[in-house]
Amino acid sequence: MSPTHTTDKAPRKLDGTIREQAADWLARQQSGTMSAAESDALEHWLQVDGRHRQAFAQCQQLGLMTAFLKDDPELNAGLPEIRKAVRRRSRFYSQWRWVSGIAAVVLVAVAALLVRDYYAIDYYQTGIGDQRVVHLEDGSTLMLNTDSRVGVRYRRAQRALFLERGEAFFMVAKNPSRPFVVNVQGSEVRALGTAFNVALQAGNVRVAVTQGVVEVRAQDAGGEPRQLAKMLPGQGVRYTAARPGDNSGVMPVNLEQVTAWQTRRIYFDNERLEDAIAEYNRYTTRKMVLVGDALADQRISGVFNIGDADGLAFALEQGFGARINKNNQRVLVLEPR
Amino acid sequence: MRSFKLRNFRSGAALRLVEPSPVADACRENSAFIEALYSEYHSALGHYVTRMLPGGREEAETILQETYIKLLRLQDLQPLRENPRAYLYTVATNLVRDSLRRQLRRRADQHESFDEQDHASSQVSPQGSAEWQQSLQQLKQSLLRLKPVTRKVFLLSRFEEMTYPEVAAALSISTRSVERHMSTALKHLQQELNELL
């Protein structure tokens, strides 16, 4: 290939147009959904002019440099808390991508064993769409919902659990001398003999009690642990993990709705359509995508089976006149014509 | 290993020069051209690279050497002749990027231990040369000047390697808007950090 498209007198500094095109191309490429034709077009765009390649490389460079600011408190301040929950997973995956095959499996297994022995935290996790029941050594039971991760560290004085992402239901074996404490991003949900549900989503924590008494403690602005809520069965609380002061107070909850996932169902009670779809998407990698804003604020009620795209799609067609466009990767929900 | 490569190549170039043929003449001419370019841009490129990575002048020098080697290995000098500056900066930037990726990976490895502090918050103090720190500061300030939603999209994507659908879900926006915000952020950063680039 010997490009002759450009002149020898190409300007030395890149002009704004090239920079803008480079930004568009990189943003497009990063989506991971470029068609073959688009890939060719990008390849061509890079080939025809050295300045295109430079601008593209520099865009990548800026993205990479940004990753070095990952621990900057000011930049983190505005981010939704979800990032903390996915942080460990993404690290794990990003490493995973670099090593492959059996060697990686062995490495990870060995590392996990070492870490486990040393810190004595057992981690249980589920992938998207999976659920799992774990019986713990003290007789308590842990049920993990989709895409969730819980660490368990039992010591003599305390049973400490860590909900790192997702949602779990805890059925606690009674033992007054050994409190059962679920840590959620700095706050604590404490229980004696009880059953309760804790969900962590986009930095918001939802606790609902089905049995016994549950107390939520979190640090106040001064860093002192304070009681946030004390709840009885049928009650719950919602709060922001980063600012527990930002909470709903004790409120009644619909236990049927909260625990529906345990029978692989999703329960919508006058839910915004956009939120309902986000909820549906928690359980599947074949995401449902709401196109446009027309339907986002509509309300939906009903019980659906987890992962049943057809059922939900049918309801959206019938109820809202939505047009559905399905393929193996995703389900598009389009506005009514 | 790098110095080995360099030496190895130079001896290769020297060998070729011995043969009295038109090919050898062309080679010599090309080498001279590259040599001249390299010394012309050495200082500016050195400053540029120093700002782009943590390891200061020393690491930058390594990148410059690798850049030089890449140039000497070129089969077709046409793109280089067309726009030497763009070409040099692209090669150097790509090498810097490889190096940064390695360093990020190492950092991630170190973070991967499940120590107890991890459940609170672990802060890693930034390190690196003064130039690098300054670039990161400029970058940070520029990021802070982005519209909040654009910044969130960009940072979630860059900090957590979240995919567009994941970012979209986290922020309740469409993946299409994620792409738009990514592009907007990149345009803004390029414009504001023009001096750096």
Automatic annotation (TrEMBL), chain A:
Residues covered by the FecR N-terminal domain: 20-62
Pfam families named in the record: DUF4880, FecR
Keywords on record: Membrane, Transmembrane, Transmembrane helix
Sequence intervals crossing the membrane: 96-115
Record domain FecR protein: where: 123-215
Signal peptide: none
PANTHER family: PERIPLASMIC SIGNAL SENSOR AND SIGMA FACTOR ACTIVATOR FECR-RELATED, PROTEIN FECR
Protein name per the record: DUF4880 domain-containing protein
Protein species of origin: Microbulbifer harenosus
From TrEMBL, chain B:
Region (Disordered): 106-127
Pfam families cross-referenced by the UniProt entry: Sigma70_r2 (PF04542), Sigma70_r4_2 (PF08281)
Span of the signal peptide: none
Every RNA polymerase sigma factor 70 region 4 type domain range: 137-189
InterPro entries: RNA_pol_sigma-70-like, RNA_pol_sigma-70_dom, RNA_pol_sigma70_r2, RNA_pol_sigma70_r4_t2, RNA_pol_sigma_r2, RNA_pol_sigma_r3/r4-like, WH-like_DNA-bd_sf
Domain RNA polymerase sigma-70 region: 37-105
Gene3D superfamilies the UniProt entry points to: 1.10.1740.10, Winged helix-like DNA-binding domain superfamily/Winged helix DNA-binding domain
Annotated transmembrane regions: none
Keywords: DNA-binding, Sigma factor, Transcription, Transcription regulation
Annotated Basic and acidic residues bias: 106-119
Top-level taxon: Bacteria
Sequence similarity: Belongs to the sigma-70 factor family. ECF subfamily.
Name assigned to this protein: RNA polymerase sigma factor
Source species: Microbulbifer harenosus
